[in-house]
Amino acid sequence: MHNLNFITDLASPDLDPYVRLTEAQLFHAKGTQDGLFIAESPKVIERALRAGYQPASLLVEEKVLDRDLADLDHEMTMNQTEGLGQTPIYVINDQQIRQLAGYNLLRGALAAMYRVQRPNLASLFKSIPNPHPRIAILERVVNPANIGAIFRSAAALGIDGVIVTSDSADPLYRRSSRVSMGTVFQIPWTYIDAKTWHMEGIDLLHRFGYQTAAMALRHNTIRIDDPRLAKLDKLAIILGSEGPGLEEQTITQSDFTIKIPMAVGVDSLNVAAASALAFWELGNRTQDN
Q: Which CATH class is domain 3-114?
């Protein structure tokens, strides 16, 4: 039995996470230990639940209520995951949903989920079972859509973990998790403070046994299919900001600079597209579908 609450007024404080709170306000939501985030669509919500995230509430449009709850219940049963229990489910009609910002982009149910504390670097690396891991470092990648697309490629193409600098977009932003199709909940990841990264990030990776490959164009840049890269025991692939790219210090301190061979007259790709090609070449793919 679901805990359904039919909403007659969008001014209800129960709807604050969906209607009035910004991403930053959700991150620092009162009454929570680590904040909240919004997961959008049954697929994303299901993957968050499967990964152990707990829902504070759900918001569902009345005309798709049966469909969305059936999808969620089915996924929970198939994956032997605890269901929604007595989680409040707020139901609004199609007229009310049109008053929500971005309503035309909605793809079914929304859930306000409790954040969990991210692991430190040592814990993250310990959680990776692969003895020859490939990880990605995202340095100041500020577009949430790019963050989501990179996570989706990382999960699909054999990247074992992701580290995100704190001056990047949040992987749990609503747009990030939506674009990732929930894969942000499947792959181990954590943040690193931007100042710490710039002061000692490469050294930290070296201490954990990783060699580093910065995606950048320099006189000594090698192709992503260079055989030396495949032989490395542990490899960290570093991707930079959409505009200026990686910091000069990051490039000069890295063990390799790597590039994607391209046609004459084009020297770069969008960071999300570049990540997919790099992960395809360098990731630990164990099987093909």
A: alpha beta
